[in-house]
Design brief:
The protein contains 9 helices and 14 strands. With about 350 residues, it is an alpha/beta fold. The chain has a single domain, classed as Ribonuclease Z/Hydroxyacylglutathione hydrolase-like (Metallo-beta-lactamase, Chain A). The strands form 2 sheets. It has a 7-stranded mixed sheet, with no helix packed on it. Strands 7-8-9-10-11-12-13 form a 7-stranded mixed sheet, with helices on one face. Strand 3, helix 2 and strand 4 form a beta-alpha-beta unit. It is globular and about 50 Å long. Bound molecules: zinc ion (2 copies).
Length: about 350
């Protein structure tokens, strides 16, 4: 299973040099069945993902792996907050001839059918093009918790607590590897749990049990929770705790607070000490293959090749290429920091 991190920021996109290594775009993760080592490698192999989890502003980064071909696939949305949906209209490959975009959202009950509810933010006067008219082969479906087969994967959805929007977490399996994705999660809503940071509740455990990678809301730290828990997110210490209790092979800290700089994220990760589970800091541009190679034998963070933007194609704005180059350059630093972090963990 190939996991593509197209956007790792929480709440709102950011800009600025201090955010380049972990990225500026909001939540979007692709799941493919190849073993590409980066965006450009996936584009060259024709291994673009057909299953996408959330469509925040990182959704546009799919163009880097589609190599000019139309997007055909399913987009499983965890919940309808802007940072998980606002990328949908901006991927040109999603309305090229031959496209197919099947959007699945948590059912909205009495609030209305799925497309109508989505268009409360996408139709005029909020946005000029209603979601159902972006392309002829777009669909929007309201769904319920359960397990379905999508794009060659087994996808399980469970309802998890967040704030202000019915929210699902997803578990994706292909028979030989598995991924759990809980980008927005307020476990404190169900009680304090053993560490005062939230319950390790049955839905979270069912999604994360024994997974190769748990991608999880890491918006806050334990020290920040008393002041910020009302926002509906998790602390990094909860994430590693859940990873340990659920027997996850690794956790990926994800949905970084928009105010958090690269340096601050590094500090938080270093401060975890030896958390008892392998910790990866999710970064825009990162492509992983699950199951992960043994940490002692292989660097888990695989860089996107320099030039990925050009190979992956069609962006034409110079500014975009510059941003891509900055990210590529930054990845080397991230890996160094990752190695330093592991060294610190294992003196
Ligand atoms: Zn969010
Ligand atoms: Zn949210």
């Amino acid at each position: 299973m190939n996991v593509f991190f197209f956007g790792c920021r929480g709440s709102t996109p950011v800009s600025g040099a201090e955010y380049q290594r972990y990225g500026t775009a909001t939540s979007c993760v692709g799941v493919g069945n190849g073993n590409a080592t980066g965006y450009a490698d996936a584009a060259a192999r024709g291994e673009a993902p057909h299953l996408v989890l959330d469509a925040g502003t990182g959704f546009i980064n799919l163009e880097r792996v589609l190599a000019g071909k139309p997007f055909c696939g399913t987009v499983c949305i965890t919940h309808l907050h802007w940072d998980h949906t606002h990328g949908l209209p901006f991927l040109r490959e999603a309305y090229m001839p031959g496209h197919r975009v099947d959007i699945r959202i948590p059912g909205q009950g009495d609030s209305g059918d799925a497309e109508t509810v989505m268009n409360r933010t996408f139709a005029p006067p909020h946005f000029p093009v209603p979601i159902g008219t972006l392309g002829e082969s777009w669909s929007v479906t309201g769904t319920e918790p359960g397990t379905v087969e999508l794009e060659g994967f087994t996808v399980r959805a469970e309802e998890i607590p967040h704030k202000g929007s019915r929210t699902f977490g997803y578990r994706v399996s292909d028979g030989s590897s598995s991924l759990a994705y809980l980008p927005d999660h307020k476990p404190l809503a169900l009680g304090p749990g053993p560490a005062g940071l939230g319950e390790y509740h049955p839905a979270a455990l069912a999604l994360a049990e024994g997974v190769d990678l748990l991608v999880h809301d890491s918006q806050h730290t334990a020290a920040e929770m008393p002041a910020l828990a009302f926002l509906g997110h998790s602390a990094v210490e909860y994430v590693v705790g859940l990873g340990v209790v659920a027997g996850a092979k690794a956790v990926a800290l994800f949905h970084h607070d928009p105010h958090r700089t690269d340096a601050q994220i590094d500090e938080i990760v270093a401060g975890l000490g030896d958390p008892g589970v392998r910790v990866i800091t999710a970064r825009e541009g990162m492509v992983l293959t699950l199951p992960l190679a043994d940490e002692a034998e292989a660097e888990p963070v695989v860089p996107t090749e320099v030039g990925a933007t050009e190979a992956g194609a069609p962006r034409d704005a110079g500014a975009t290429r510059d941003a891509g180059a900055t990210r590529d350059a930054g990845e080397t630093g991230e890996r160094s920091n990752g190695a330093a972090h592991r060294a610190a963990q294992r003196p």
